[in-house]
Amino acid sequence: MTPAASALDIRGVGKSLLAEYRKAANTQTKIVDLFLAFIVATGVLQFLYCALVGTFPFNSFLSGFFSCVGMFALTVSLRLQLSSEKNVEKAFGEYTFCCLLLFFVVFNFIG
Amino acid sequence: MTGRAGGKRTIALLDSLAILDTHSIFFAGLAARGHKLTYTLATSPRVTLFEYGQPLYDNVVYFAPTTTAFTAPGLEGSQTLADFVAQGGNLIMAADVDMSDLTREMASEFGVDFDKKRTVVMDHFSHAPALDLKGMHTNVVSSNLIENEKILGPVAGRKGGAAPVVFRGVGHIVDPENILAVPILSGMSSTYSAAPLKEIPAPSLASARLTNAGTTLGLISGVQGRNNARATISGSLDFFSDAYFQHTLDTTGQLAGNELVALEISKWAFGERGILRASNVTHHRADGSNPEHLLATKEKPDLPFSLFPDPELNRQSLVYRIKDDIIYSLVIEEYDADRGGWVPYQASDVQLEFVMLDPHIRTFLECVPETGRFWKLFKVPDNYGIFKFRILYRRPGLSVLAVNTQVSVRPFNHDEYERFIFSAFPYYASAFSMMTGFLVFGVALLYSKPQKGDREGKNLKKE
């Protein structure tokens, strides 16, 4: 393939990916994905802030950043589980338990 | 350390008793201020300055430049006057053209180096011809007086200052790096010191010293020791004489300023002016609370009674904390006999340092004029350890004021740190946003209705 064609190809791939996503994903998945995007944005913002201002309360930075990372991991696991599990409440219940553990740790470390 | 003020027991050591007559106005002036004068010959065998180690006199007027040796058992050569000043006594010493080696050595004990033997101070432009015996212009008229109100009193200063003074004697130099010495009377720019009738030697490698001349030529200098005792050394005995006090200057027709200047100098020289003392040193926090003691006394009933339970620890040490606001204040007074003794001191340049090996804070104290109270509010720095409040105040004409007060500074207790750190607010916000996001997400996930066109969730083999 010529390079120009492959560039077009990438854009084409992206467009078709987005179209497939809109068609294939159901509301549940979209909600989870929104939440994931929010978590990523928060994490990136925090990281930028730390890079600008410095790591003064380092434990606070680690704890805040870890809350984002941990939530991201847990939410991705929930998304995986939801796509194969019919019982939403059971999945969400396990998710809640893990999140509470995460919050407990974050709160103690944030100072 | 504070200076000793206003001692009145004065002894005059003289070459001959004729000096009493030729210098009667000077001694009368001293007596009029309340000095209890004793006159003896310097060579008298019964002169004694100390008795059982204590000085018998507060001040010495040494008008004996030609004395070559002391005969009294208590006086030991050139160290005599230096020992007296070292014990806190004040001194006015006058040399003369034919001064002895003893006088020369005694003056050099104070850092005043007189010019070589047989040299005289001369000035062909600024001199008093009426007193000149041999036409050699040795009676120098100088108006180069130090402009210091503590030394010369109200006479100092250009406007309304003292009239020029007449001086006949030997010049001296004082090391310019000597911080204890103050030039009170110096030569005019046309004054020089040389052997009359002899050629002035050209400066060469052999003679390291240039001719002493000009405005750096010292005629009268004052030296204040580290114990705040003062020695004033004049190169002329005639400066204090009645003839010079009563001399009328030829150029201006006014009376020479000798009497005024000599008596004002003697006030400074004998500690009747320019002595500082500090009292009532206090320090406390800005909100009025006092610092704690380092260790609270704890009852130990099982130990036997002792007056020194913890001898290595200073229980009385006062403790501040870093970042405390503290106020330091003290009262400084100045002794001025003309203004009635101890009066409150006024200045805007008294410096306070908060020192632990190096000053961490250096600031001027604020002055309250009527009471002489100096105070300052400042914040303790972030370093902890043993600090001291240090005031080391040196000004020309005033005695040295050195006040040190030691305190301890401790770091924060574990519960005195700020609870929430301002720069960590974004991290707090993100953690809370995660939690609220989880709640919102949970509500959205569990209670959202499936929409048209949603694919059914993959059916597990539940049925």
Most extensive interface = A-B, 41 and 28 residues
The portion of residues forming beta strands of chain B comes to 25-35%
CATH class of the largest domain in chain B: Alpha Beta
Gross morphology of chain B is elongated
Could you tell me the number of beta strands of chain B? 27
Helix content of chain A: over 70%
How many helical elements of chain B? 8
Alpha-carbon Rg of chain B, integer = 36 Å
Our estimate of the beta-strand percent of chain A is under 5%
Give the number of helices of chain A: 4
DSSP strand count of chain A: 0
Roughly what percent helix of chain B? 10-25%
Our measurement of the CA-to-CA distance between the termini of chain A, rounded to an integer number of angstroms, reads 56 Å
Q: Mean of residue pLDDT of chain A?
A: 89
Q: Which stretches of chain B of 5+ consecutive residues score pLDDT under 50? A: 457-463
- Given the C-alpha coordinates, what overall shape of chain A results? flat
How many domains of chain B? The number is 3
* Tally of domains of chain A: 1
Mean pLDDT figure of chain B: 88
Oligomeric state of the chains in view: heterodimer
Describe this structure in words.
The complex is a heterodimer of chains A (111) and B (463). Chain A is an all-alpha fold and 111 residues long. Chain A has one domain. Chain A has four helices and no strands. Chain A has helices at 3-24, 27-53, 58-84, 88-109. In chain A, helix 3 (58-84) runs antiparallel to helix 4 (88-109). The model of chain A has no long low-confidence stretch (mean pLDDT 89). Chain B is of the alpha+beta class and 463 residues long. Chain B has three domains: 9-271, Rossmann fold (3-Layer(aba) Sandwich), CATH 3.40.50; 275-410, Immunoglobulin-like (Sandwich); 422-462. Helix content of chain B is 16%, strand content 31%. Chain B has eight helices and 27 strands. Chain B has an eight-stranded mixed sheet with strand order 2-1-5-6-16-15-13-10, with helices on both faces. Chain B has a six-stranded mixed sheet with strand order 18-19-27-26-22-23, with no helix packed on it. The model of chain B is unreliable at 457-463 (pLDDT under 50). The interface between A and B is medium-sized, with 41 and 28 residues. Chain A: Pathway: Protein modification; protein glycosylation. Chain A: InterPro entries: DAD/Ost2. Chain A: This is Dolichyl-diphosphooligosaccharide--protein glycosyltransferase subunit OST2. Chain A: Pfam families: DAD (PF02109). Chain A: One of its GO terms (molecular function) is transferase activity.
